[in-house]
Design a protein that fits this description.
GO terms for molecular function: flavin adenine dinucleotide binding; tRNA (uracil(54)-C5)-methyltransferase activity, 5,10-methylenetetrahydrofolate-dependent. Catalyzes the folate-dependent formation of 5-methyl-uridine at position 54 (M-5-U54) in all tRNAs. This protein is α+β, with helices and mostly antiparallel strands. The protein is globular. It is 32% helix and 16% strand. The strands form four sheets. It has a six-stranded mixed β-sheet.
C-alpha cells in the first residue's frame, strides 16, 4: 500500500508517532523487536515501557519548559500524555505514573486502533524504499545500529544511562522516614506527601559517601567510554565529582522537615518516589547507579530507614546510542542521505520520556502530512517542540553534540524582558504564553 507508514520501535516516540499518523488517516505498522530480541533494560513486551524513572518531571506549563511540552502534547491529542494523565500518581508538582498500568494502556489503545498493526520482528537494515520512522531509542539493536553507522559514514555517539533501584514500601522503616513533598508542594494531601524521605546527619552522610566511592562498580568493555548525560549521572559518579555534589543534587535537604525530629535539620535527605498506583513500590530518586548488585544492597541499606529494604529491582547501566543529528537530520527529522527515513525519539539526541514522545508526535504528523500531499510549515522555534527540534537539527554544535532536555535556554528571547533571576517568573510566563499561541496556530495547519 503506497501510503503505509512503517515505524521501527514501540517505545515512547514510536507509540506516539503511530498514534498521530493513524489519527490523521494513515495506515501504520509498528515493528517492535521485543520479546523476540530483548534489551538490557526492558522487562516486558509492552509498548511505551518506562525503563528508568516513572516520572515525566514538572507539570507546570507556565514556569517550566517540560511542563510546557506536556501542554503542547495534550493540545495535539497526544496518546502518551493522555495515558499518563489517566494513570498519574501523587508526586507534588511532578507528573509521575504507574508504569505498568501506563504501558498496558498505551499498548491496548494502539492495538485497538483500526489503522495500526503490530509486527513482532527485528529490522536489521535500513529500508531502501517506502515511508519509515526509526524510533528505536537509546537501546537500538546492534544490527540496526551498524546499518545506521554504515549509511551515515560516522560513528554513532554513545553515553551510558543508569537505572535507579526500586524498593518495596513495606520494607521502609517509618520510624525514621516520613512522607512529604519538598516545600509541601501539591494541591492535594496525596501530592503533598508523595515522597518518602530518609534523613542523614553529617556522620551518616560522610560514611555513605565513603561507601559509594569504595563500592565495586560495573566495568566497561574495551573501547567503551563513560560519557554520561549530566541529567542522569550515577550517584557514585556524582560523589566522585565532589563529596558535596550529591548533597546539592538528589540528596539536598532543603524544603523538608523531619516530623520525628522537627528541630533537627538533616544534613542530607534521600527521597523515594511512589512507583505504582498501589503505593507498594518506591524508586530512589536520582540514585541511578553502576555499582554491582551486591554492593548496591550493602550501600543503600546504610540509608536511615532503608536498613531492612527489600529491592524489587536493583539499579543498572546500559549504553545509549544517538545520532549526531545536527549533521544528519533535516528540519523535518529526515535522514539527509535517505529522506524516506525519519528518526524520532532519544536516538535523535533528545533526553527524557517527554522529549522523546514529543519528537515522535512531530515525526508522526510530518510523515502523515507528506503521505497525504500536504506541506506543514516549520514548527515555530518559540514552542517547546520547535525549540527542541531546532536544537537537534542545527542549533546545536555538531562537534560537541550531547543529549538535551527541553529548557528555556533553547527558546528565542522575548524582547523587553528583564534578564537574570529576578525577572525569571515574568520571563518564563512570557515564553509559555507565546509558545501556546504559536503552537495552537501551528496545529491549525495540520
Amino acid at each position: 500500500m503506497a501510503d503505509l507508514l512503517h515505524i521501527i520501535g514501540g517505545g515512547m516516540a514510536g507509540s506516539e508517532a503511530a498514534w498521530q499518523a493513524a489519527q490523521a488517516g494513515i495506515d501504520v505498522v509498528i515493528h517492535e523487536m521485543r520479546p523476540g530480541t530483548g534489551t538490557f533494560a526492558h522487562q516486558t513486551d509492552r509498548l511505551a515501557e518506562m525503563v528508568c524513572s516513572n516520572s515525566f518531571r514538572s507539570d507546570d506549563d507556565e514556569q517550566n519548559a517540560v511542563g510546557l511540552l506536556h501542554w503542547e502534547m495534550r493540545a495535539a491529542g497526544g496518546l502518551i500524555m493522555a495515558m499518563a494523565d489517566s494513570h498519574r500518581l501523587p508526586a507534588g508538582g511532578a507528573l509521575a505514573v504507574d508504569r505498568e498500568a501506563f504501558a498496558l494502556a498505551v499498548t491496548e489503545r494502539l492495538l485497538a486502533h483500526p489503522r495500526i498493526a503490530l509486527e513482532r520482528s527485528e529490522i536489521t537494515s535500513l529500508p531502501a524504499a517506502g515511508h519509515w520512522i526509526i524510533a528505536t531509542g537509546p537501546l537500538t539493536s546492534d544490527a540496526l545500529g551498524q546499518a545506521i553507522r554504515a549509511e551515515t559514514g560516522t560513528q554513532a555517539l554513545a553515553f551510558f544511562d543508569a537505572i535507579a533501584p526500586i524498593v518495596h514500601a513495606d520494607s521502609v522503616d517509618l520510624s525514621k522516614a516520613w512522607f512529604q513533598s519538598r516545600y509541601d508542594k501539591g494541591e492535594t494531601e496525596a501530592e503533598r506527601t508523595a515522597y518518602l524521605n530518609c534523613p542523614m546527619d553529617r556522620a551518616q552522610y560522610e560514611a555513605f559517601i565513603d561507601a559509594l566511592l569504595a563500592a565495586d562498580k560495573t566495568e566497561f568493555h574495551e573501547g567503551e567510554t563513560a560519557g554520561y548525560f549530566d541529567g542522569c549521572l550515577p550517584i557514585e559518579v556524582m560523589a566522585e565529582r565532589g563529596r558535596e555534589t550529591p548533597r546539592h543534587g538528589p540528596m539536598k535537604p532543603v524544603g523538608l522537615t523531619n516530623p520525628h525530629a522537627p528541630d533537627v535539620k538533616p544534613h542530607a535527605v534521600v527521597q523515594l518516589r511512589r512507583d505504582n498506583a498501589l503505593g507498594t513500590l518506591y524508586n530512589i530518586v536520582g540514585f541511578q547507579t553502576k555499582m554491582k548488585y551486591g554492593a548496591q544492597v550493602d550501600v543503600f541499606r546504610m540509608i536511615p530507614g532503608l536498613e531492612g529494604a527489600r529491592f524489587a529491582r536493583l539499579g543498572g547501566i546500559h549504553r545509549n546510542t544517538f545520532l549526531n543529528s545536527p549533521t544528519l537530520l533535516d528540519c523535518e527529522l529526515r535522514l539527509k542521505p535517505k529522506p524516506h527515513i525519519r528518526f524520532a525519539g532519544q536516538i535523535t539526541g533528545v533526553e527524557g520520556y517527554v522529549e522523546s514522545a514529543a519528537m515522535g508526535l512531530l515525526a508522526g504528523r510530518l510523515a502523515a502530512a507528506e503521505l497525504t500531499g500536504r506541506a506543514l510549515p516549520p514548527v515555530p522555534p518559540t514552542t517547546a517542540t520547535g525549540a527542541l527540534v531546532a536544537h537537534i537539527t542545527g542549533g546545536a554544535e555538531a562537534k560537541t553534540f550531547q543529549p538535551m532536555n527541553v529548557n528555556f535556554g533553547l527558546f528565542p528571547p522575548v524582547d523587553g524582558l528583564k534578564a537574570g533571576r529576578r525577572g525569571r517568573r515574568d520571563r518564563y510566563k512570557a515564553y509559555t504564553d507565546r509558545a501556546k499561541a504559536d503552537w495552537h496556530a501551528w496545529l491549525g495547519h495540520g
